Amino acid sequence: AYTGNGATNAMLISGPLGHGVQCLYYPPDPLLITPATGLTACGGVGGPFTVTNETFSLINTGTNSLIWSLTNTSSWLYASPTNGPLAAGGTTNVTVCLNSNAYSLASGIYTATVWFTNLNDNVVQSRQFSLTVIGPPIITCPGNITVTATNQCETVVNYTVTVSGGCPPYTTICVPPSGSVFTNGTTNVNCSATDS
What we know:
The structure is a single chain. The protein has a five-stranded mixed beta sheet with strand order 4-11-10-6-8, with no helix packed on it. It has a four-stranded antiparallel beta sheet with strand order 3-5-9-7, with no helix packed on it. It is mainly β. It is built from no helices and 17 strands.
């Protein structure tokens, strides 16, 4: 078996794999990028969105300086800076954010990948981004409800309102709320819903 600092710096070691078997050990890339995922954002057409940016820390865990670069092919993301040197043990931050194009996207789910490359060893790492653009929430109210009064003046009325679309979670307000005491006659219920 072989071990070492990469395939070009491997050395033969003895082990349970037997004679003539080669096992190459590749150490982790010295360019450490955190967090391990990109942003996931949601919002209505034209915004606002739940998340608008993500800051990545690039850390050189190696003993030599390195040069890194970033590739962004998305029309709705902006990244800065996009390249630079990083000294051994050094750290830099990269911000990836929604750009103005995100605010003119039609309803849909948009995905993008940003690629970070250590140009010294050509190791590429990716971060996934997702933007869900949704129309406004839609309230579905029950039809007219007829309830037999429990006394001559009033009765409790229960009803269910559902909300779909938009960007959950929802805040739904109905006046008067379900479970209220309604007086005899016709009572209009007005409901509104907001999403996150």
